[in-house]
Structure to design on (342 residues):
């Protein structure tokens, strides 16, 4: 396992992040405690140190299992990331038990620390934008937690690019902690973050940590093989276009004698920007297979075929700036075509 810096920080994280949304059996699916422990053992033995969870995952069971594990191992080896926003526990009558507010932030982080049985979180994400709380309230609260030593770094997930941009700019001006990572859905079947979110992350030097990089297992080809899974049949992850893209992934996997999952994951890692995909697992064998991704390299031809098969329209202004390989600039009240500088 190789290590890379998380955003514009000195924090070293493994090139794959372990997703633990399935740690626990609530809801009729997931890994029991014994299996979850074995998965973390496998990850750590491979050199993995970056673990992703959230207060809502399995109603807090995920954090409890991780807490028990890390307290029987070297806590300082692990880079532990959790999240707040969504309702956790039995908070059904509390109107402030969800959302991005400072009140819910402080409540949530304290509960997460208790479940994880740790004094600090390495990375703390805002889980999803609530479109209510002012971004300055969020940034000031997160910075206070950093100053209190309860979290080391801040990050953000599932939030519009303009909100993140405003937040990081405000944080820079005020001397507050800035977001070092951006967690969004990103895969060969979901490339819409390339319109605004990923260019924004590149500009601010943030690491992208894609969730569902295998599109819920669709990119492994298991649904084309007739295997069962948790994706609903009417999902766009299983439509005609998605099947076409998946077949390209499977063809390249055959050429390299690797699994389709390796190809799909490696595609996210070879995009030319800092990207650490989150690989979830509810079985040890699933993780073992995903870990083999680090030994795979896609050629320029492979990347080109995958890019072309999964290409999306950037829309305005992305496509506008790429029109005919030129930029449009205003001179004297009219548009002149000028050569695009490399």
């Amino acid at each position: 396992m190789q290590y890379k810096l998380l955003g514009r920080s000195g924090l070293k994280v493994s090139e794959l992040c372990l997703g633990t949304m399935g740690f626990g059996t609530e809801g009729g699916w997931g890994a029991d405690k014994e299996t979850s422990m074995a998965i973390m053992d496998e990850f750590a033995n491979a050199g993995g140190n970056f673990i992703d969870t959230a207060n809502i995952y399995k109603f807090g069971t995920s954090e409890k299992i991780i807490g028990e594990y890390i307290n029987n191992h070297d806590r300082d080896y692990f880079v532990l990331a959790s999240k707040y926003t969504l309702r956790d526990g039995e908070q059904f009558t509390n109107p402030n038990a969800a959302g991005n507010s400072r009140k819910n932030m402080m409540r949530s982080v304290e509960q997460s620390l208790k479940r994880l049985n740790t004094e600090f979180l390495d990375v703390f994400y805002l889980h999803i934008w609530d479109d209510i709380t002012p971004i300055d309230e969020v940034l000031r609260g997160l910075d206070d937690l950093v100053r209190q030593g309860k979290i080391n770094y801040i990050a953000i997930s599932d939030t519009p690019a303009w909100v993140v941009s405003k937040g990081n700019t405000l944080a820079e001006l005020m001397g507050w902690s800035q977001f070092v990572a951006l967690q969004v859905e990103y895969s060969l079947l979901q490339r819409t973050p390339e319109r605004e979110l990923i260019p924004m992350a590149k500009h601010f030097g943030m690491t992208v940590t894609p969730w569902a990089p295998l599109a819920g297992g669709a990119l492994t080809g298991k649904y084309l093989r007739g295997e069962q899974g948790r994706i609903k049949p009417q999902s766009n992850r299983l439509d005609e276009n998605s099947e076409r893209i998946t077949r390209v992934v499977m063809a390249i996997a055959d050429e390299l004698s690797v699994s389709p999952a390796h190809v799909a994951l490696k595609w996210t890692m070879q995009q030319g920007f800092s990207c650490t995909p989150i690989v979830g697992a509810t079985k040890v064998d699933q993780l073992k297979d995903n870990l083999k991704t680090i030994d795979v390299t896609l050629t320029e031809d492979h990347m080109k075929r995958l890019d072309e098969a999964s290409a999306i329209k950037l829309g305005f202004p992305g496509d506008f700036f790429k029109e005919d390989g030129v930029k449009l600039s205003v001179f004297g009240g009219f548009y002149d075509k000028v050569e695009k500088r490399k």
